Amino acid sequence: EQAVIFQKTFGCCRFIWNMMLSDKIDYYNKEKKMLKCTPAQYKKKYDFLREVDSLALANVQLNLQSAFQKFFKEKKVGFPHFHSKKKTRKSYTTNKVGNNIDINDRYIKLPKVGIVRIKKHREPYGVLKSVTVSQTSTGKYFVSILFEYENQVQEKNDTAKSVGLDFSMKELYVDSSGNEPSYPHFYRKKERRLAREQRKLSKMYRKGQLQSNRYYRQKIKVNKLHEKIANQ
Length: 232
Prior knowledge:
The protein has 232 residues and is an alpha+beta fold. The protein is globular and about 65 Å long. The longest helix has 30 residues, at 2-31. It folds into three domains: 2-77, no CATH class; 90-148, no CATH class; 186-231. Helix content is 40%, strand content 18%.
């Protein structure tokens, strides 16, 4: 049930982004002005938007505004584009308001989702500000939690212990003493296996047809291999 809510939220965030972007483009073409719209305006027509976290939709609005601001400031950033169901990263961000988000050693409480069992990466500290829920291509769910804290930087002027690093295409870097890190080259070691699994996947693909279960199982296998290399 919680996985269904996650998927609905991912879909609603993508939907509201595309709807707002489309309406902004149409309004600008007609009136030559920027349309100001909010997710609340779409809930009257699309009731399914009420089923997900409203703060997640509000963050989509802020992200779209930020995308337009970056485009107008620097054209090379590119115009905001529509989000595709197949290519867009599955994620959404919600903010802490009152006690809607809480975290302990084994669980995290999320709006509309409830209590979710977690494996905590490390002990958090500071003031909890926001949470980003995402899903990888292998089906795993991750929660990134943003904390705000006061950081006191201590300046150190001990140049005797400082080390200079020079970029190296082969071994990543060379330090001032001539040492190299012996970079493990994880991708190169898995390159042949990855190519073999991708060839199998390409042979299973049928253009313009419904893909078989074997194709989707092989696709997950390739994604898991990519994920393993990235984790390494």
